[in-house]
Design brief:
Layout lengths: L1 H34 L4 E6 L1 E14 L1 E2 L2 E5 L4 E6 L6 E2 L4 E5 L5 H29 L3 H57 L6 H30 L5 H76 L3 H21 L5 H22 L5 E3 L4 E6 L6 E2 L4 E6 L5 E8 H4 L7 E4 L8 E9 L7 E9 L8 E18 L4 E3 L2 E12 L2 E10 L1 E5 L3 E5 L7 E6 L8 E4 L2
Parallel strand pairs: 1-23
Antiparallel strand pairs: 1-22, 2-16, 3-12, 4-11, 5-7, 5-10, 6-9, 7-8, 9-11, 12-15, 13-14, 13-16, 14-15, 16-21, 17-18, 18-19, 18-22, 19-23, 20-21
Helix pairs in contact: 2-3, 2-6, 2-7, 3-5, 3-6, 4-5
Length: 556
């Protein structure tokens, strides 16, 4: 029993020694073990140096001025002659409209028609009342009635003429497109080649097959003769050579036959393709001729209508003449009517108002008032456009392009209006840029500025993204650090400084945040102003994200 107690105490003592030894080892090695899990950082001391103050940025190319084409009354677009990206000249036709609705003009015209009707009725009643006693007045009244009927017919005819003209214009555009389709189909047909006569090739294949059949028969006969040679060596040799030659001839003929068959299959396929192209060309030509016939028919109908229909203006002029003639006869007869005189005054005022509104009314054809490039089309054929709505936007490219991008307030101090700049991402010797404006950024007026450049170059186009570099000043600073050592958040710009903490087990390294002011920067270095001392180390790189107060370890 005593022996067992001694053994147990010995084991306990050994375990205690092992435990405390391990604890001592871990205590002294804890620094190394813990360091393995810490972010690895690279540091550098502050130094003096030179900063090259170049400012760079990216922006989209925009025209200096845009022009918006609008309608001053509601209209429906019948046909659009342009596409986005097209270059247009001044007074070029942009699109065609139906007669739109101008509610004010329609209201005034309706009031004018009512006044004219009242005036004419009053005039006719007076003419009828006094016409029984005066044949001249009665004749003038009848002539006015006839003129009014001609005016009604002229208005109806002019409406039909206007509709026909629009139809002819639209269909003429379609004829142009159909003609282009015909030319394209005929070109494809010409490029497709001509048909081959497969009948001849089929006869040649049959002749070759028959020839092969005869060769196979001859080969069979030779093989039979070889079996009957009965040991005659000379005869066997001769027959074997003939069999060899015959087999070779058969092989060549079979190759020729296969080649001929492949050629025939290719010809059949080519002929089918050509037939398809012929059908497409015929259909395109038929559509073109049909639409052309429609246009010619409508043109003939239009010519007849224009010949047979009196113009509305001429009809209105005739009515006025007959009204005036009847009025003068009535006045000559000393017929006074105050209501009739009042109607005449109101009619004159209404006519003047309608004429004023018509002068401001757009025509059916809308032309470009400026030269430039179509940047946006908001409506297409079939759409109805409200009054003062923009239909087309034109970039007036002759006045040049601009590019804008934001920079910091510090960067804006290195440049000034008139500085020449370099376009970095266009391989064009004619590409050039000039700084023309510096203004506060509306989104961040306290910390940002907008630089605007006038750009030019043969390869520069609207909406293109350009990289621009401006400024080439240099200045010496007492404290500079690599640009990747400077961070920024909503509290401002800062760097991480390496702070050393001494412990009984060795030095510990901490990342400490310090606010700085960036005085200038280029692609490599940033000049800073801060409370850092020359002996402090700034963290320039870290393989993991770091934060204020975090433990770090130096790169080995």
């Amino acid at each position: 029993m005593e022996e067992q107690n001694k053994t147990r105490k010995k084991h306990i003592r050994n375990l205690a020694v092992v435990f405390f030894t391990a604890l001592l080892i871990l205590t002294f090695c804890s620094n190394t073990i813990m360091n393995l899990a810490l972010p690895q950082v690279t540091v550098t001391k502050l130094k003096s140096g030179t900063i090259y103050n170049k400012v760079r940025g990216n922006g989209k190319v925009e025209a200096v001025h845009n022009y918006e084409v609008k309608l001053d009354s509601q209209k429906k677009i019948v046909h659009m002659y342009i596409s986005e990206g097209d270059t247009v000249s001044e007074n070029q036709l942009l699109f065609l409209c139906e007669d739109g609705k101008n509610e004010e003009l329609e209201s005034k015209e309706e009031a004018l028609d009512n006044l004219q009707l009242q005036y004419q009725k009053s005039l006719l009643e007076m003419g009828n009342e006094y016409g029984t006693a005066n044949l001249t007045i009665q004749n003038a009244r009848d002539e006015l009635l006839a003129a009014m009927e001609k005016k009604k017919q002229a208005e109806a005819g002019q409406g039909e003429i206007s509709a026909l003209k629009q139809s002819i214009q639209v269909k003429s555009e379609e004829v142009g497109k159909l003609k282009a389709n015909v030319e394209e189909a005929q070109k494809k047909l010409a490029d497709g080649g001509s048909k081959e006569d497969c009948t001849v090739m089929e006869a040649e294949i049959q002749a070759m097959e028959r020839e092969l059949e005869g060769l196979h028969t001859a080969l069979g006969d030779l093989q039979a003769d070889l079996q009957l040679a009965n040991g005659n060596t000379a005869e066997e040799t001769r027959l074997a050579r003939e069999i060899r030659d015959k087999e070779k001839e058969i092989s060549y003929k079979e190759e020729d036959l296969n080649t001929k068959k492949e050629a025939m299959q290719a010809a059949i396929k080519d002929n089918a393709d050509i037939e398809k192209l012929e059908k497409e060309a015929e259909e395109a030509n038929a559509a073109y001729e049909s639409k052309s016939l429609e246009v010619e028919t409508e043109k003939e109908r239009l010519a007849l209508l224009e010949a047979d229909t009196m113009g509305v203006e001429d009809a209105e002029k005739l009515v006025k003449e007959k009204e005036l003639a009847l009025k003068e006869l009535l006045l000559a007869a000393r017929i006074q009517n105050l209501d009739f005189q009042y109607l005449g005054e109101q009619l004159s005022k209404q006519e003047a108002e309608v004429d004023r509104l018509k002068e401001n009314e757009n025509g059916n054809e809308v032309h470009s008032p400026v030269a430039g490039v179509i940047s946006e089309i908001r409506y297409t054929a079939g759409d109805t456009v409200s009054q003062e709505e923009t239909v087309v936007t034109i970039n007036m490219v002759d006045e040049g392009y601009t590019v804008s991008f934001p920079v910091t307030v510090e960067q804006s101090r290195y440049v000034s209006v008139g500085n020449e700049a370099t376009v970095l991402n266009v391989w064009d010797e004619s590409a050039a840029a000039e700084l023309i404006n510096i203004k506060a950024n509306p989104e961040d007026p306290n910390r940002s500025r907008i630089l605007t450049f006038r750009v030019q170059g043969e390869e520069i186009t609207q909406e293109q993204s350009l990289a621009i570099s401006v400024g080439d000043m240099q200045e010496d600073y007492e404290a500079i650090v690599p640009v990747n050592a400077v961070y920024e958040d909503n509290q401002g710009k800062f760097v991480y400084v390496l702070r050393v903490k001494t412990t009984p087990l060795g030095n510990r390294y901490l990342a400490e945040r310090r606010l700085v002011e960036v005085l200038a920067s280029d692609d490599t270095y940033a000049a800073i102003s801060s409370d850092l001392s020359p002996d402090e180390y700034v963290i320039t790189e870290s393989i993991q994200p770091i934060d204020d107060g975090m433990k770090v370890r130096l790169v080995d």
